[in-house]
């Protein structure tokens, strides 16, 4: 099981994260094409599918953007600043223990040795405190990082809104157009059966129905992919 | 492993789908509160966390909306219209086989029996063709369903955009305010050590650093939850 963080960090080569929108788009494009050009539903599926693919790209950009402008700096903070503070704190603890031990042996060890222990302890305490103080004092930097994250998310939602607005207009036109086409009536063709090849007329419609059915099954499973926790 | 579709269909009781935004929001709220009111980063985390929680609610609404206005009608189509067509097609196949069989026995069975087989076959063919014709002719209905789905998604992205716009403004104000506070300088307090309780001054900062470190670890794992496929 490979961790996404590793992928995002570039430790694992990936051919793009399978965004929900992209999977849904693939499914819509596939069955839209199979339904063919005459089918209003088929054409609409292709249109929605293409928009879904564009939305998946926008989501990919969000992932890359957040990785570079938010996760990476956060990772650096953890690997550098916080690690350094941890180092100072461990050193401080060692020197405190050393001083504690020597303090109890007053009279048994040279005064100079105890004085040195205090000095070293004080030095470490100042270093640790200063590094923590500076880290906490600079927290406006981290607020700015949060703002960068929020901007990336905002950008993603804005672009998705735009794609969907265009799509909505296109679909409205398509519905108006399709609604204005006069309804055809079903004309029964009597069977003059001589061989089973006469049934071809039926099989053309049948395959479209099968495509429509398949689409619905796949759509259900595509939508299902959005749920990581079952 | 419970299927989300079952959950969405209401077959399994659920206390709300754990949206990525909600998990991230919980994490931010938790550590924002731990960092405390003095911390600009802590307050910003709470602000972003609250917005993330609101965005999770908007996503919940999207899920419910899509389920009711898109998945349910699609499911009905599959369970009713397509099932009916399937039934007609199976009946047609049976009658075709019956006719085929009787056709080969011309002369051996009564003429009347063959005529009846043709009639039944024709009747089934017309029923199957008519049901498929009507289904395909009405595909503008399915385009309208797609448009409803697109509208739900559009609504979701619009609302998220609005939440993030408000958040962006608040964060900008917070950053300006925090940047204008004059920087405090670190004042070293010499150690007059008598007991280990004198080290309390250090531990207050330490716990904030620990919170910050924990937040970053949890944030990394929260962001990771968005990836179902590793």
TrEMBL record, chains A, B:
Give the GO cellular component terms, alphabetically: cytoplasm; glutamatergic synapse; presynapse
User: Where's the BAR domain?
Assistant: 1-180
Database matches in SUPFAM superfamilies: BAR/IMD domain-like
Any single Pfam family the record assigns to this protein: BAR
Single GO biological process annotation from the record: synaptic vesicle uncoating
- Per the record, the domain of life is Eukaryota
Similarity comment? Belongs to the endophilin family.
Q: Which PANTHER family match?
A: ENDOPHILIN-A3, SH3 DOMAIN-CONTAINING
Protein name, as recorded:
BAR domain-containing protein
């Amino acid at each position: 099981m490979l961790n996404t963080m590793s992928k995002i960090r570039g430790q694992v080569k990936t051919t793009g994260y399978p965004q929900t929108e992209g999977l849904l788009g693939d499914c819509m494009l596939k069955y839209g094409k199979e339904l063919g050009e005459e089918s209003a539903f088929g054409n609409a599926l292709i249109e929605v599918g293409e928009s879904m693919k564009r939305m998946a790209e926008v989501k990919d950009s969000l992932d890359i953007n957040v990785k570079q402008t938010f996760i990476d700096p956060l990772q650096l903070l953890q690997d550098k600043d916080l690690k350094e503070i941890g180092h100072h704190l461990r050193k401080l603890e060692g020197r405190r223990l050393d001083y504690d031990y020597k303090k109890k042996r007053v009279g048994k060890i040279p005064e100079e040795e105890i004085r040195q222990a205090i000095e070293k302890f004080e030095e470490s305490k100042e270093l640790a405190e200063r590094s923590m103080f500076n880290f906490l004092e600079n927290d406006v930097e981290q607020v700015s990082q949060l703002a960068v994250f929020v901007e990336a998310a905002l950008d993603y939602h804005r672009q998705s809104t735009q794609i969907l607005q265009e799509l909505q207009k296109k679909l409205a036109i398509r519905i108006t157009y399709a609604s204005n086409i006069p309804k055809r009536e079903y004309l029964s063709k009597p069977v003059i059966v001589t061989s089973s090849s006469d049934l071809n007329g039926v099989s053309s419609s049948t395959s479209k129905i099968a495509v429509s059915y398949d689409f619905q099954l796949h759509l259900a499973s595509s939508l299902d992919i959005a749920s990581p926790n079952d």
